[in-house]
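User: Second chain of the day. Same drill as before.
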Amino acid sequence: MPAATVDPRLLRAFLAVAEELHFTRAAMRLYVAQQALSRDIRRLERELGAELFVRTTRQVSLTPDGARLLPYARRVLEAHGALLAAFGRDGEPDRPLLVDVNSPGLIGCRVLDRARELLPDAELMARYESGLTGAAAEILAGRLDASFGRFAGLDPAVRARLAQQPVRYERMAIILPEGHRLAPWTEVPLSALAGETVYAGAGNPRTPEWTDLARRLFENRDIDIAPPAPLAVGTEEFQRIMAKKGHPILAVTDFPPMPRTVLRPLVGPVPLSPVSLVWRKGAVHPGIDALRRAAAETGAAEGWLRRPPGAWIPAVDAEVMETRPGRAARETAPGSPAAGRDGRR
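Assistant: Same format as last time:
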């Protein structure tokens, strides 16, 4: 007969193995010894009176009982995390918080730097996943804790398991080769890109939310999206591949400089890239609280959630980024002002 109560720690161990299907990786994810993890799984199996995994020398797989337990375990842990958060208790306060900032120099770096100032005794470590879709998968697998990007561009099933806080509307820009006909311009109207082929990450499995935003922006403007390029890892490789292809690149105005190129803001209208802070629902860590506070305070001081009159943003993104009164307590850091209600679509 199953135990009357189940320790959330055992469910956390089960969830890590169920999502990794590998005991070594699951142990690394939980910062425990593999022997201790195996012991917790055996204890959970005894308490539930069910075998949860099939283990061979080559693979680990869920049994039918394990598959049946999986959605219950997720819901219990999410509720447990929410309960701890509601009463100000931290689940694993000493664990390093892994924060994907996408690329050096972007908005995530600024928020992370400020969060480190707010929480100097904690370890907030930067990661570089380059794309919210890729980062979201890592968050749900427990290999990342937080990331930044276009939340509305994620699959609805993924969004349902994540929490988000609007951070900033970033102005979009175009990166041009130095010899491009538009390079001498200080701003580039979207109409001037008619007939151009622009790189927007097509084919990159980590960044489909960015390519989707580009498609929406370029629709009915006679601007084509460049075909997939070889997947580059690291800034130097990305710059080399882009120089070889020679296409203009859709970016944001804070994008780090690239050799032999110029970056020009887009206008007519001003297109905006919506950025949210994203983390797993129910996750509890003082670092997440610090990130939320850092984003809210800096954003309020610098007007990150103000939209220029007539700016362009898809309606689906505007809905996500607008903080409704009923959602303010969930989507805005404690004590910070609600944001994102102004501006037009």
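Confidence is low (pLDDT under 50) at residues 324-345.

User: Great, on to the next one.
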